[in-house]
Please model this.
Amino acid sequence: MDVLSKLEILADAAKYDVACTSSGVNRKASPGQIGSAASCGICHSFAADGRCISLLKVLMGNHCAFDCRYCVNRRTNDVRRAAFSPREIADLTMQFYRRNYIEGLFLSSAVERNPDYATEQMIVALRLLRKEYRFAGYIHVKGIPGTDKSLIASLGLLADRISINIELPSQASLNLLAPDKSKASILDPMGYVTEQIADYKSLALRRQGFSAAASFAPAGQSTQMIIGATPDSDLQILRLTESLYRKYRLKRVFFSAYMPVVSDGLLPAIDSRPPLLREHRLYQADWLLRFYGFSASELLTESNNSFNPYVDPKCNWALNNPDFFPLEINTASREELLRVPGIGVTGTRRILAARRQASLTFADLQKLGVVIKRAQYFVTCNGRRPEDLPVAPDTVLRGLISERLLAEGRKGWLGEPEPEQLSYIREHPLLEGGVPGWQLVNK
Amino acid sequence: MATGEQIVYLYDGSFPGLMCALYESLHRNCLPEDVCSEDSAVLYLYPTQRIITDEGQARSFQKWILEHCGSDVLTFVRHGFLSCLARREIRILRFLRLARERGPRVLDMLQHDDVLPLHRAVLHLRRESHLLKGFVHFSLRQGVLVATIGPRNQVLPLLAEHFCTRFSAERFLIHDSTNNMVLMHDPPRTELLSVTGVELSAKDQGEEDIEALWRLFYDTIDVSGRENPRLRMSLMPKRYWSFMTEFQEQGTGPR
Model:
């Protein structure tokens, strides 16, 4: 089989892995090397689905010994199979990299024979790239659950980022859909990677200025979960996410709306649509955990365990915590400002810098990039609210729900019948529990 | 406050030239109506004053900015000059007058009318140059990696370091067709040149095959159930597409 056909099969088999980031590490090539890495990450194109293309994302091979129900490459699925040789992978990466099509390689593999054999093949390819081709670009490699620690250790010294996918957010779901995987086979290597990263980091700190220390996955570790293939709730998923950040020091947790690729009685029907809005809400909440100082328990509770489709998690929190507001823009702390809908991390930084020069008005806030339409219900400037602040519930909700979402709701994107007008949404059961706070403006 | 004077400064269009014009204004405490490049064919309603470019004076003025306003302000001024903002020269002058009063913190004063438009223009330049670090796609022509771009801002000075570090041992050439400039790297030399045009030699043998592989990868990696053309367009505006390999049919595009 020629490289073109292999690429078609093995890129197709890899595309459901959402992560394509090339961030987290700065590196310049030393003499004789080619390539560099930028910690902010660089996108080289965007696919028609709007996802960033940063890395050559391929599988080493898709002959799989496992039979995970949700996976297109499962042993019992009837698909075309192929395998790259390590040399083919290395050559393709260099050809693409040199033309600046990509930031580097995202190499993954089906479980060819067994986890150790598949990982050994990937190690050979990465060694070729790093040692023979002197490649200094970005490498993201997948750790296969159940792989021997010594092999994970070799991977970590060659790659910038390692990810071991959790795939399903609970043991029960794993038992049901991925009989060859267990929680331990996933979390053990994940914990090992966490330890190694920490060890190498402290070693590098101690040796700073003496010699260049080897680094172990310097861009850190990430994982991915499939959303909507199992009945796990948003709360469960977000709690798990939070503990992965805390306990395993992960850099990123990725969510992948389940895309039915195989027909199976245990899975959503093959013609069901991927829960893209739910995935979007989870990412928003993930951002709140990582950059805004929120905890999972603030965003969702046992009694209210899924995200509101119409307002984002931050807005939902604000509407449910009217006592926290209004905040005075000119005196509120950084932590407080970050909790205001319509003010992001950049906006907060700009407000803190600008108010040292002069006290701020609503007109100033707009220039600093604050979304006044959302923030106006929650803040004052020098004790004042905007003069024409709308108070009619209809208008307030319209201000807080994005026009686009309303339009998409009308198109049935949310899986709901087509609402004739906004009043439908006001009466929507999800809003009754989730958005009681519009009275806020009347205070 | 300086008195506004009904005069237009004409400079040679170069950055040192602009520095001399700004120096002239601040030094004489005179705020001209406008500062324009000599070759901009505008009919001036006001008397003009020709600014003579003096490299030494330009350098010492930059040193003054560095010492009084900090390196971020100097970089901001340089980037303002590279941006595509209309009447950027007079805006940079107004900004510098404020910077002279307020020091490095002027960069935090986004609410000020002499800061915000320039800030937005600089952000636009920096974002565009970040995007192009990814969107520049080379093709091999006579052993040289060649790419053409059509940016809105003058991004090449910002791209130079990135590409020279990444491809330090490669010979490459990036042609900015908007601003008629070329970044040339022929190790160990790097040059940024003004050009009138670039004639491309034919693609090397085997190049079409690699481009076909890339197009195949691009088409394959898309998950059709997640189709979102609007998102793609907002992250990668259409004006960049015509320069990118994945949107060129085999055998088309710049040959």
